[in-house]
Design brief:
Blueprint lengths: L6 H10 L3 H21 L5 H10 L12 H11 L4 H9 L7 H7 L11 H17 L10 H5 L1 H7 L1 H4 L2 H21 L1
Helix pairs in contact: 2-3, 2-7, 3-5, 3-7, 4-5, 7-11, 9-11
Length: about 180
């Protein structure tokens, strides 16, 4: 795999005030993102994926509201995280917002859309982990069930798709990842 989640990074989350539940979520997202990246066989930056996924919810040390992505990116910059990581943190809200959506949600107006495969892998993994950790599917030791039923789950549970634009973004990421993984197999 080439990159292992660092205990020192997990300690940084705790020191920043991220709750243990949120730390568990972040670690699980990092593990899932690294797994998916490996399964795609794509030439990606594994450290960026692992650290971007681990720190994506750093802003939840301050708030669980929609601006936690922006706040997390600011905190990440203060901690010395590289721009590519803080970009993932800031953009992960609803899978990468357009300027129009940012305006509607009261966030700083800018383009939050995901530009890199690394960003899309992290954000897709975040949604998968939400489904897995919320117990939406009976995984019985097989987390792939969340992937197999991803589209169905997003359609059935509005909290995961949020709205039509967000739903369509997540469906695109799912199809992209599944396509990359099937090419490798």
């Amino acid at each position: 795999m080439g990159y292992k989640i660092q205990d020192s990074d997990i300690a940084l989350l705790r020191k920043a005030g991220v709750s243990e539940n949120d730390v568990r979520h972040c670690v699980k997202v990092a593990e899932k993102a690294l797994e998916i990246a490996e399964r795609t066989g794509s030439d990606v930056n594994m450290e960026l994926i692992g650290r971007g996924a681990l720190f994506h919810d750093l802003g939840k040390a301050k708030t669980h509201e929609i601006e936690h992505g922006k706040i997390g990116a600011e905190l990440g910059s203060q901690l010395g995280l590289i721009r590519e990581i803080t970009d993932i943190m800031e953009k992960h809200i609803r899978g990468g917002l357009t300027e129009e959506e940012a305006r509607e949600l009261g966030l700083p107006v800018k383009d939050y859309t995901l530009k890199t495969l690394e960003e899309r892998i992290v954000i897709y993994s975040d949604r998968l982990v939400d489904i897995i950790m919320d117990g939406i599917v009976d995984i019985g030791g097989d987390e792939l069930e969340a992937e197999r039923r991803f589209e169905e789950i997003l359609m059935e549970y509005p909290k995961y798709g949020k709205n039509k634009k967000t739903l369509n973004r997540y469906l695109e990421y799912h199809r992209e990842m599944q396509g990359l993984m099937s090419i490798k197999e």
